[in-house]
Design a protein that fits this description.
- This protein has one domain: Porin (Beta Barrel).
- Helices cover 15% and strands 38% of the residues.
- The protein contains 3 helices and 12 strands.
- The longest helix is centred in the last third of the chain and has 13 residues.
- InterPro entries: LOR (IPR007612).
- This is Scramblase.
Length: 193
């Protein structure tokens, strides 16, 4: 497994120079790298892999799109070592037109929470006027309340950056959070609603 799962805060940063496919690094606040992610291009269904490092010698998480139609995008998050299906994230297309919403499902398909864009006002401003000038902010709501996991895009017109903050005692599986964060950085971050 990788040390990124022990961090309460990390950043997912897109690699700037690339020819095909998206590539991302998991970094701590001191920019120490804890993981590498590659999103394969020219696939009918998304296929995203997370590795311990750029050598790609040890894969620890994979995200696979459930169906070809992305509007209702369901993405299975799987532990590459054990083959365990950790859970699924599913976009609600019509609900996300004005404000991004992703439903979080456990391995059995039961809804356990939701990732929601920060506010309707900011969400509308991003879509109508300001786009890149107002980076997205999200929080994860799960049953039982408690502190939120937050994800926020950093303003940078050239490189995608997503900062993830996890309360130390948050009950959600950190592998699931890492997979969801990559889906946000790679899929939601490319402008699809």
């Amino acid at each position: 497994m990788t040390g990124v799962l022990d961090l309460n805060q990390y950043m997912i940063r897109e690699k700037f120079w690339k020819i095909f496919g998206n590539k991302f690094w998991f970094e701590d606040v001191d920019e120490k790298r804890y993981g590498f992610c590659e999103q394969k291009r020219f696939k009918l269904k998304e296929d995203i892999r997370i590795y311990v490092d750029e050598s790609k010698s040890q894969e620890w998480l994979k995200i696979k799109q459930k169906q070809i139609v992305d509007a209702w995008g369901g993405y299975d998050i799987m532990d590459s070592q054990s083959g365990e299906h950790i859970g699924t994230v599913r976009r609600k297309f019509w609900a996300s037109v004005l404000r991004t919403r992703w439903h979080l499902l456990d391995a059995a398909g039961n809804e356990i929470g939701m990732l929601i864009e920060d506010s309707m006002g900011y969400a509308l401003a991003r879509r109508i006027l300001l786009g890149i000038l107002l980076p997205k902010k999200f929080h994860i709501e799960i049953g039982g309340g408690g502190e939120f996991v937050t994800m926020r895009q950093m303003f940078n017109p050239f490189i995608k950056k997503l900062v993830v903050n996890i309360p130390p005692s948050h009950p959600l599986d950190r592998r699931f959070i890492a997979g969801l964060a990559i889906v946000i950085a790679a899929i939601d971050g490319r402008g699809k609603k």
